[in-house]
User: Fold this.
Amino acid sequence: MVTARVVEVAVDTKEMIIKKLKDNGCRITKQRLLLLDVLLDNQCQSCKDVYYKANNKDSTIGIATVYRMMNALEDIGVINRKIEVNIL
Assistant:
């Protein structure tokens, strides 16, 4: 089983993260802003945690949106995800 956990959200301010996303070619949508708020306001242990918390606020957010946002944040160096592999 492979699980990805959000290990660390950088200390960058929300504005700096938004600027980095824009510089990397990402559009800043309402859903991306909501996901960013969820990440900055909560201790999320996985993408599923982010998804459930964001989906409670906006039911139109899908799990694929969360994964794409997490990949974008990792690409710009804002978060670091650690992959754990459990072999049974």
